[in-house]
């Protein structure tokens, strides 16, 4: 199998810690986080911890990886996400399983974040540990300037899950000298962003060398989620990982 990018939730936490202090709107053509390509570990959708926009939803992830023998391997998973009116977030990461798998994929971790206390918690079901860290500053929706080799196309507006979204398509041409295939190729990334919910409702990534990945937000329910989602469950041992100042 060709190598694919591995991205853990540690990078997700790093993104939270390095974000600016104040909240801000995403500029025209910007996105929540640049997509990093086909992955074997997928953190899912970044849920911005903004207040007064409560919802719950399901994130469906489908991955197609090109194998060395010319065949493809397709995998899937489903994560639950939520945010309450205070801006507290709940975000799951579940195991990628074959598309023929029937049932619920195993829960690998849950990320909780409270913007009032700046407490970030990663729950690990396999160890029943709650890794806690007080962040120095609150995350915001970051904007990312494009590199010169990336072209961006405005896809206009649409509606997904009864939510208004705006789409962009980013394309990057990789020259034959560096593509590892002996010929030029094009990488495509598509984003459909909801200004109302402050998150990407749909992300599509295509790379002829590795395959494709689709991350879509479905089953959106507006309103206050179950408050128990944002609490550390009974039986978990808290581990304080806040850096010593």
Question: What can you see in these coordinates?
Answer:
The protein is mainly beta and 245 residues long. It has a single domain (9-240), classed as outer membrane lipoprotein receptor (LolB), chain A, CATH 2.50.20.10. Helices cover 4% and strands 45% of the residues. The chain has one helix spanning 9-18; strands spanning 55-66, 72-83, 89-94, 97-98, 107-114, 119-124, 129-134, 150-160, 163-174, 185-194, 199-207, 211-222, 237-240. Strands 1, 2, 3, 4, 5, 6, 7, 8, 9, 10, 11, 12 and 13 form a 13-stranded mixed sheet that branches. Strand 11 and strand 12 (211-222) form a beta hairpin. The relative contact order is 0.22.
Care to give the gist of this entry?
This protein is mostly beta strands and 245 residues long.
Oligomer designation: single chain
The structure class reads: mainly beta
**Percent range of helical residues:** under 10%
**Total number of strands:** 13
Count of domain modules: 1
CATH topology: outer membrane lipoprotein receptor (LolB), chain A
Instruction: Please write the string of helix (H) and strand (E) elements.
Output: HEEEEEEEEEEEEE
CATH-defined superfamily: Lipoprotein localisation LolA/LolB/LppX
First-residue to last-residue Cα separation: 44 Å
Which whole number gives the mean pLDDT?
A: 81
CATH architecture: Clam
Rg to the nearest angstrom? Answer: 18 Å
Total helix count? 1
Q: Describe the main β-sheet briefly.
A: 13 strands, mixed
Assess the beta-strand content as a share of residues: 35-45%
User: Which class in CATH terms?
Assistant: Mainly Beta
Keywords: Signal
Signal peptide: 1-23
